[in-house]
Write a structure and sequence with these properties.
With about 130 residues, this protein is mostly beta strands. It is built from 1 helix and 10 strands; from the N terminus they run βαβββββββββ.
Length: about 130
């Protein structure tokens, strides 16, 4: 599975929209043995808790420039558990049933009890570009 924006998020962008720079946007490590990307998924509740590894992290210093979304790299502290093969970015509303999924980004790492730093692309597309 390639990295992708969730179709329901694309609908939000083209409709009422979500302001990524003012909302609480988080990322969570994902074990794809327990979760398979599905373009029909739209809320964090669609992602089994058992597929989430580590404590979700809030994206800091978010920006949107020229249709490109970026933020500071995320550090997951002292991560243990299953290997992860993806990161999901979502809007944290405090309720998994209303926390919109935004992006699914592939990238594998095996936790060893140390910190995991998710370094976003420093190229033209940053975290993602429209």
């Amino acid at each position: 599975m390639a990295s992708a924006l969730y179709p329901k998020y694309k609908e939000l962008i083209l409709g009422a929209g979500l302001n990524l720079t003012s909302l609480t946007i988080k990322c969570v490590l994902i074990d794809t043995a327990d979760y398979t990307y599905d373009p029909a998924h739209d809320f964090l509740a669609d992602v089994p808790a058992g597929a989430r590894v580590g404590t979700p992290q809030t994206l800091g210093t978010k920006s949107i420039t020229g249709g490109v979304f970026d933020a500071l790299d995320c550090t997951f502290g002292a991560v243990t558990g299953d290997a992860t093969e993806a990161v999901i970015i979502y809007n944290d509303t405090g309720d998994e049933a209303t926390s919109n999924l935004i992006a699914y980004i592939e990238g594998a790492v095996t936790p060893n009890g140390g910190d995991i730093i998710v370094q976003w692309d420093n190229g033209a597309n940053k975290i993602f570009a429209l």
